[in-house]
Structure of Glycosyl transferase:
Amino acid sequence: MGRPPTTVLLPTTTWTTACQEVADQLGPDDELLVVCDDESDRVADRDGLPAGVEVVVAGVPDGCSGKANAIDVGMERARHDRIVWTDDDFHHPDDWLATLNADYETHGPVSEVPFFVGQDPLSILLEPGYAFGGTFSVWAGDVIWGGAVIFERSDLDVDAFRKELRQTISDDGLLGEYIDVTTLRRARRVEMGGSVRETLERHVRFMKLVRYHDPPAAVVNIVLLLVLTAFSIRFPLGTGAVLTAMHGAIYLAFGQRRWTALLAYPSVLAMVPLMAYAYARRTFVWGGRRYRWHSKFDVEIVD
């Protein structure tokens, strides 16, 4: 017996390599909805789309992020009950969609994890911190990553979810409040940054996501980071050795062999001022729009 047909939602404004990779994996009854913002986006008038692929124009967001708006419209247009969310900024191997579907049959809703790879001096410095907070902690806590998650409509209250989605920033942060997933120890490399400014904007968004979707975790993170920083300053050699060994083990556990694990100690020292900066900032830029995130369901698009 074959698997159920699947709808893949991929928000993007351009036809990227990832779009083609996912399109090549579609079964005869699957569909890929490439969701863009506006008719002026380059992907909107692309000719010669592969079979099973449709471009959906979501329109300008109002009171939510562009990503949340795209996912909401995609959920409305999806023909199938089984749904996959993904992003356009990482490699999707040939068996990616088939493997996710097989994982669902075994575990129910599942998510993969990102491994963020720096593209500028600041993001390279922060790689070890993101390996811990954005990869290891996401896996250990069964947290959803919107870049690779599969579920079915029956796994959540779709109407209630979509109503709240249209009022917030984080699509996967909100989804995690509606369904429980098994997060797999399978990492996808995601390039981050490109400039120091881009890295700072991403960091602000990540910090605010935790603040609004999991306030207790935000408090725990602050306390632990302050304690760890104090130890790092008081006992630099011992703490540096432990941090380097721990992050090296995390890298290897997720199949990553990168020299940046050696930056674990300075990465930790950089996190306190960066966390203070993130909480002090009133706005951040994501996908070309500037947002002011007043509270979880109070989002202002500044420009």
